[in-house]
Amino acid sequence: MDKAVTTHKLTKKFGDFVATDEITFEVAQGEIFGFLGANGAGKTTAMRMLCGLLTPTSGEATVAGYDVYTQPEQIKQRIGYMSQRFSLYEDLTVRDNIRFYGGIYGLSRAELKTKSASIIRELGLDSVADALVESLPLGWKQRLAFSVALIHDPKVVFLDEPTGGVDPITRRQFWDKIYEAAHNGTTIFVTTHYMDEAEYCDRVSIMVDGRIKALDTPTELKRTYGVDSMDGVFQILARGTSGK
């Protein structure tokens, strides 16, 4: 399978502090790849390097076939990004947010019209298309933000804690949209602190103190560490002990 993301000994240092320490992994096109770790484990630093926003100290990495050192702008044009903290402009309408982000990604006027109508229809937002985003429930905001991240048909979408703060039913609906995007060939690179969501991923990487401590399918990780949940795997790795 084609590789959407590759890293080899990717390292980022801030002075004497090593934020990511020689992390190596590959993500296949169309894969849902979970990137897990406690706060401060190095997840955000790694994601920023892969998004072309932060230059590594050493190592190698490519995203959608482009080099993170020499081709960060090409990467930015070919990825989507969604954060729990900031993805939409609250003081713009639903329709204006879609048009704004579509314009950033270079969609033509005709493409913007088609995409806007499609997103609004698919999400059932016809009645609030001209309402300010700040007036929407959080779950609607998150689904809209995800659709906007996909508006330019990116090869890879980076989701940073995308379902934080929403109820379990809304989280499940959001993951249905993730499955749909992956089925259509989009690679999903997702960080989450909900261990039950790790079960939805094709493979999971767990970072501890800047290093990848485990990488496999959820089923194999649970078997390896002798536990019945991903939360159990995470707790074992965080403690640095064996579950057997």
TrEMBL record:
Keywords per UniProt: ATP-binding, Nucleotide-binding
InterPro entries: AAA+_ATPase (IPR003593), ABC_transporter-like_ATP-bd (IPR003439), P-loop_NTPase (IPR027417)
Entries under SUPFAM superfamilies matching the protein: P-loop containing nucleoside triphosphate hydrolases
GO terms, molecular function: ATP binding; ATP hydrolysis activity
Family matches, as Pfam families: ABC_tran (PF00005)
PROSITE patterns to which the protein is assigned, alphabetical: ABC_TRANSPORTER_2
Every ABC transporter domain range: 5-234
Protein name per Swiss-Prot or TrEMBL: ABC transporter domain-containing protein
Organism for this UniProt entry: Persicitalea jodogahamensis
